[in-house]
Amino acid sequence: MSAEIASMLLADGRLPTGGHAHSSGLEPALAAGLRQSQVPDFIRGRLETVGVVEAAATVVTRRWAVSGGSGSELEAISNELLARTPSAPLREASIQLGRGLARLASRLWPQHHAVQLLMALPGHPMRPLALGVFTAVAGMDDTAAARSCLYDDAQTVASAALKLLPVDPAEPVEWLLQVAPTIERIARAAVEVDCAADIPATTGPLVEQWSLEHNARSRRIFRA
Fold first, then answer.
1. Is 11 within 8 Å of 151 (Cβ atoms)?
2. Is 49 left (phi over 0), alpha (psi -120 to 50) or beta?
3. CATH (domain of 126)
4. 161-192, pLDDT tens digit by residue?
5. How many domains does the chain have?
6. Contact of 159 with 136, CB cutoff 8 Å
7. Model confidence pLDDT, tens digit, residues 67-83
8. Would you say residue 44 has pLDDT above 90?
9. Is 198 in contact with 64 (CB distance < 8 Å)?
10. Which of 110, 181, 217, 220 keeps 20 to 30 A from 1, CA to CA?
């Protein structure tokens, strides 16, 4: 598989990883009063906080996989990411997405050492770890891995908006084009991270609070 094709696959909403069941926090944000006109700012805010953390973790994991690292090293990356995800519902959502992506990787490359260690990780991998391994095995470089992580988060919000808001289908496409420079800038920053301990610890307190409220609701469209 070429790196270019792998990048296209990861950007495809039909990829069987369970992402269609998530809104990247848009549903709870709207329930808390976010207006439709603020969705582009919401996307940008996620990229600047959650996005940079997850993109950096993806890059660090990709490098680990390429270098043939050990299971204990992968577990250390996982612990650093868990520590930077204080909301239990957000951790669980990331694990659900990571489990789906890891399952896909194990189907495509069952004999790869990094994939086997990913599947053996205690507690199941969060999304950035699974994405890091997937991008490594698929031959993608650091920048492409970070970009895939960031774009997936942004397009998840945009796709969810079509189900949650009375929006013209062309408008979410415009949102993604508007944040493209932000994605590129944060991808470059993520590549500058040297090791797991240096992964940024930025977060969005409102996103965390909304995730807790959303988790307690009995009526919802998306899991997170």
1. yes
2. alpha
3. 1.10.4190.10
4. 999 999 999 999 999 999 999 999 999 999 99
5. 1
6. no
7. 999 999 999 999 999 99
8. yes
9. no
10. 181
